[in-house]
Amino acid sequence: ALAQGQIVTAGGGGNATNQNLNSGYIADGATLERSLPFTMPSKYIDLYLNYPSFNTANAIQDAINNRFGYGTAVAIDSDTVRIRLPQYNAVDFLSMVGDLEVHVQNPAKIVIDSRTGTIVMGGDIRVSPVAVASGNISVEVRQAPANPQQANNTNNTNNANNTKKHSVFFVKAPTLRQLVSSLNSVGASPSDIINIIQAMAAQGAIHAKVEVE
What we know:
- By secondary structure, the protein is of the alpha+beta class.
- The protein has 2 domains: 44-98; 109-212, no CATH class.
- It is 27% helix and 21% strand.
- It is built from 5 helices and 11 strands, in the order βββαββαββββαβααβ.
- It has helices spanning 54-68, 90-98, 148-158, 176-185, 190-202; strands at 2-3, 30-31, 44-48, 73-77, 80-84, 109-113, 118-120, 130-134, 137-141, 167-170, 209-212.
- The strands form 4 sheets. A 3-stranded antiparallel sheet has the order 3-5-4, with helices on one face. A 3-stranded mixed sheet has the order 7-6-11, covered by helices on one side.
- The chain is flat, with a radius of gyration of 24 Å.
- It starts with a strand and ends with a strand.
């Protein structure tokens, strides 16, 4: 493949752009000059999962076997499902396999674009007790009190409120969306928010996979 064109570097992320001075992309700049050679196998084909998961591999195996008969598909491991091909019409068979509906659980994931300061996340990602500071921003998530009455009183007054300037305090595990919203309300920069999320992930306080682009 060849690529050429204008390199675009997005600078809307404030200080976050300082971390990737030589980072950019070319919109529609690649041309595939020759496709990779492919020969249709005669006995079986291996289906590889983009995101390895034993549950997903097992769900794909069951969906194929329920439609075409037991033994048609076997989950080899967390990212490979081996599919036995019919003697004739393998292309038609694979097209029907591709149309099967498989219900899977999407893994929790956070995608951070450090060039623009953009953060993409699910709505139910929880944050465990942790304390993090980045610049003049500090965040603390504490374990909820054992006394239910005490927890209720504290939650009503401090669930996502600022205890002082440039600090965010939670008395119970918030969602990551609530945390980011609170950081925005105290004027945290995109780079501060990204640093805080990465620090929390490094401590195991965020229950999701974090990908930085």
